[in-house]
Predict the 3D structure of the following.
Amino acid sequence: MAVKIGNSYVSEAALSFAQAQENSGGDVLQDLKEKFPNLKFQVGTAPFSGSGLNNVSISPKILKEMQNNPEKRVEYEALIYDISTQNVSRPGLKSHGFIIGDDGGLRGWGISQHDDGEIKRVKVTLDKNDKKSWWQTLLDELDAKRTATKIKSANKINVLA
């Protein structure tokens, strides 16, 4: 079940995890790397700046906010927990990641290679205020691109036949 913390809806497990991990000091980025070893963190807000899976870019403004505001730290750690526990397996998925922007907004991106060898890039703005899974929004967009490529390839075959 989704629960609201700050401006985000996260899972109850994510909120519990973040509250249990609450830490009053230290280097926020280093703490995140230790708490979420399966994620690759970087500071910034540019899409497609990571390679492979499980990339998370965080605005330096958000890191500072997390450092200075324990409630914001819990909110963003809960959001990152949800990111870290998602199953990302998709045929052809080569790279994906999330961006927590200067305004605290969440964006997702993905790069996939389709059966015909074509590379597709997807960028989506995710609504973390929506109880519906923001993660599913990114996967739906990747699947839509994959389906569109298959239909396009099938149409080419039909035209040639």
Remarks:
- The first helix runs from residue 12 to 21.
- Residues 30 and 41 are 9 Å apart (CA to CA).
- Residues 156-161 have pLDDT under 50 and may be disordered.
